[in-house]
Task: inverse folding
């Protein structure tokens, strides 16, 4: 098992009209997005069912794959929100101090706006996918220099999409698996613990209406990491920092799932702080090739996650980390694991899709 797999296990302690006859308006479920526009969705799909339960159902998107009509159609028909899987991270968008490459980020926002979808921005401060100038520069910068650079990046990126991005994952994975601060984060190296506060303040200044999230993995179950992340969220709230929610990435492994009771308790801890809960990066991987027991566990994991969110009134967002098993990040980063998403490589809904859909259709308790 890779270090990441071990960490995850440790953490576990406009829809196309395809049916209408000419001249007949297609039957469409519509949902009002946070921006107020309407989104044509498959009336019997994930996002339409979510909307009926006041749950925004989204997906992580790779704009390069939109050229595949099946990928594009699945996104538009099944989801009401998109998160750029990589296209808004520091490395891709800000590869040199004076260079911005925003074409892919723009493509995600444009697709969303053309289809009345919401956008979750991801991410403004993370220890991975940073450009060399940040990784190499940060340990040499004074605190003043680092703060100015971090604030400038966030103000430029959040400001560009002001009013068009409903949520930002402001701080991603700031806490390590043992509950200590993540020392490889360049902003931690340059600014210490303050790097989280500074990022939230800069994001809020650039878009006062966006909801701002502290996002992490391995916090679905109790333990030192959950305590540290939720403790950090509580400290930020107490200090008056503009934080609005905690994102549970929910990269789950079928061999080591959180129980439904653990998910309920985790979400309640967040809600009790007055914060929103978002499931930001859901996938439930099986050992490959999956056997019947693995697939059954996976279905239970997806259903528990979906039902826990529906049962928590402050859980209003549920995002799957990718569309289909063929483009999922899991096999690349967790060798030996896969089959983590709701659609197979041919964009066909899997049996687990039916179970998640039925859970969404059942609505909030
Ligand atoms: C992953 C992407 O899915 C991959 O394509 C990329 O190579 C690495 O990052 N937590 C996060 C996401 O917050 O940004 C990560 O996305 C998955 C783990």
Result:
């Amino acid at each position: 098992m890779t270090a990441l797999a071990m960490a995850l296990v440790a953490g576990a302690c406009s829809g196309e009209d395809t049916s209408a006859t000419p001249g007949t308006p297609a039957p469409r479920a519509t949902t009002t997005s946070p921006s107020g526009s309407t989104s044509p969705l498959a009336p019997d799909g994930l996002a339409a069912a979510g909307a009926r339960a006041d749950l925004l159902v989204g997906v992580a998107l790779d704009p390069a794959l939109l050229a595949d009509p099946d990928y594009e159609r699945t996104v538009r028909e099944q989801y009401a929100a998109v998160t750029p899987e990589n296209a808004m991270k520091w490395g891709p968008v800000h590869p040199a101090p004076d260079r911005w490459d925003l074409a892919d980020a723009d493509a995600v926002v444009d697709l969303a706006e053309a289809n009345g979808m919401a956008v979750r921005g991801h991410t403004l401060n993370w220890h991975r996918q940073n450009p060399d100038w940040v990784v190499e520069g940060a340990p040499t910068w004074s605190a003043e220099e680092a703060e100015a650079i971090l604030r400038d990046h966030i103000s430029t990126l959040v400001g560009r999409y002001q009013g068009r991005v409903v949520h930002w994952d402001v701080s991603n994975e700031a806490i390590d698996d043992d509950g200590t601060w993540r020392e490889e984060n360049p902003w931690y190296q340059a600014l210490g613990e303050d790097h989280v506060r500074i990022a939230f303040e800069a994001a809020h200044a650039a878009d006062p209406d966006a909801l701002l999230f502290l996002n992490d993995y391995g916090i679905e179950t109790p333990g030192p990491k959950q305590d540290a992340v939720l403790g950090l969220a509580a400290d930020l709230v107490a200090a008056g920092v503009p934080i609005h929610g905690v994102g549970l990435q929910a990269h789950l492994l079928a061999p080591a799932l959180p129980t439904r009771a653990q998910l309920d308790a985790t979400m309640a801890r967040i809600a009790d702080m007055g914060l929103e809960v978002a499931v930001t990066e859901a996938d439930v991987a099986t050992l490959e090739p999956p056997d019947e027991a693995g697939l059954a566990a996976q279905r239970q994991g997806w259903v528990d996650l979906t039902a826990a969110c529906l049962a928590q009134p402050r859980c209003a967002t549920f995002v799957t980390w990718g569309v289909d098993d063929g483009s999922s990040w899991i096999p690349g980063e967790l060798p030996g694991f896969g089959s983590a998403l709701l659609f197979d490589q041919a964009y066909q809904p899997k049996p687990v899709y039916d179970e998640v859909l039925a859970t969404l259709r059942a609505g909030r308790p």
Summary: Confidence is low (pLDDT under 50) at residues 1-6, 8-39. Residues 85-86, 172, 217, 249, 281, 329 surround XIL (CB under 6 Å). The longest helix spans residues 292-311. Residues 12 and 258 are 6 Å apart (CA to CA).
